Prior knowledge:
- By secondary structure, the protein is of the alpha+beta class.
- It folds into two domains: about 1-245, no CATH class; about 255-370, Helix Hairpins (Orthogonal Bundle).
- Helix content is about 60%, strand content about 10%.
- The longest helix has about 70 residues, at about 230-295.
Amino acid sequence: xxxxxxxxxxxxxxxxxxxxxxxxxxxxxxxxxxxxxxxxxxxxxxxxxxxxxxxxxxxxxxxxxxxxxxxxxxxxxxxxxxxxxxxxxxxxxxxxxxxxxxxxxxxxxxxxxxxxxxxxxxxxxxxxxxxxxxxxxxxxxxxxxxxxxxxxxxxxxxxxxxxxxxxxxxxxxxxxxxxxxxxxxxxxxxxxxxxxxxxxxxxxxxxxxxxxxxxxxxxxxxxxxxxxxxxxxxxxxxxxxxxxxxxxxxxxxxxxxxxxxxxxxxxxxxxxxxxxxxxxxxxxxxxxxxxxxxxxxxxxxxxxxxxxxxxxxxxxxxxxxxxxxxxxxxxxxxxxxxxxxxxxxxxxxxxxxxxxxxxxxxxxxxxxxxxxxxxxxxxxxx
Length: 382
């Protein structure tokens, strides 16, 4: 069974509301066929096989006996991107596969209640493979990973006893090459759960569709995978590219949010400094006007007898006649006024830029939301 799990909480808007399903890690769990086999009471050679380990063999036998199935066009298109060998393609047509979504997919995969932290995206059982195909072309190839994962379950069920013994050893050694923090380890653990008997098939499916260490795994394991895939490294890259596309949208959106927050903070600081400097300017202008009025009130004959010291805004001390000091102060005020006007224009431009960024971010939000909905297997068809 193929599932999507929610990512760790984020502080940015994507975790809220419709973004709760975005960028879920793919987790897969085998669709247990026991209930199906019990329900249909498959009779093989006069012996009724119910539950236990025989159910997988029954499923494989029934599917093989029904003959090849015609693949729907959408599944065939997914398969065309899955690097299948002739044997892999033959297995797929033998098993059969269809695409479903929403409640229909959940019912087909035996999901009674939708979980808050994951949603089924595919499964494999007696009826074949069910695959959710995202509607957004940027992430549509997520279905490739789902299809090949489920196909590998079918392949595992058809392995002979000798191959299964080898696979048991090989996938255990292969897992040791996967870093401890690789998400696929968490996916495997979740999928296996309390069903330790399914560990080998889950390892076989997960590692075969999602993991490619440098140089690949043990050649013996790669030979088995090679029965079904022409280029397994390229297959794994499909999964990485889809996840990279989603992560890229998140990163771009969050970077834009951070950029907007920084721009707004810078604009706020600039406006506060502008307001402070305007207050100081207005106080200095009033003081200048008071001194100018006092100077103009003097008898012209007395004006030249006054000398003053004055410190400019540059911190430089100036000395001269009262008239000279007043002229210098007026020139300083004029220069400061021009600077304030230019800064005011810059602040207004920064506010306009922030508004434009907000609009662009809203567009990014809508784009990420579209991908969110496209990746949600529980969402009904548009």
